[in-house]
Each structure stands twice: as C-alpha cells, then as structure tokens.
Amino acid sequence: MNLPKIVKTFRQGFQGLDAIVNPINQPTNEIKIASNLSSSEQEIVDRLWRVEGMTQAQLTHFLQATPLFTLKEKMIIKIYQNPFKVTHIFLANKKGEVLFGGYVGWIHNQGLESTLESIRQDFRG
Fold it and tell me: At the top level of its lineage, which domain of life is listed (predicted)?
C-alpha cells in the first residue's frame, strides 16, 4: 500500500466531492485543505488510514465536528457522529486546515478508539 499516493488521492477526492455535493449547505470557502504535512502530521494521518474499515469522510462534516483533543504542533482531533451514530474523525492543523477526514462503521469503532488513544499518548501537546 502506498500511503503518500492514498493521501494525495484523498485530498483530490475531498476537492472533487466538495465541488459536487454540499449537503449541509455550508460555504465551502470556510474549509481549507492543508497542502503540506509535517512528519508528525503525516504519521498521524498514516495511523488513521491504517484503522480497519477507514473510509474517506465528506469534507462538509468537518464544520459540524467538535474538538476531541489537541496534540503537539497544535493539531486538533475533531469528532462528529452522524444521525446513525457513525463516528467521523478529522485531523486539523493549527491553521484549521483539514489534514484527514474519515469514518468507520460500528464494527470497527474499537479499533478507531484504540488508535485515537495511541495517537493521544504519542503526540501529546
């Protein structure tokens, strides 16, 4: 698996989805996608992508997500649950730019929770 290629595709997918669909009718110019990642940011993104069942989230849900915890370099993990209680996770940098957005189905929640706890421990602010 080539993670840098996946991350690039992920960012392109965000931009494509946002241009086509904006289900909560929020101005898309409020959402920025980071173009460069630090090594810490890249490591966290890689860990999140490795969670079993991880699927790319709609960028518009980033606006609805609430902060879960802050990491070093002032990165923020944000969380959103849709009406079906599916957990969405977003990673933003100190500028508020999106670095990652994904979700897992209920069956993979434990793996996501374990990964988030590991990230919190390893990248404390």
Answer: Bacteria
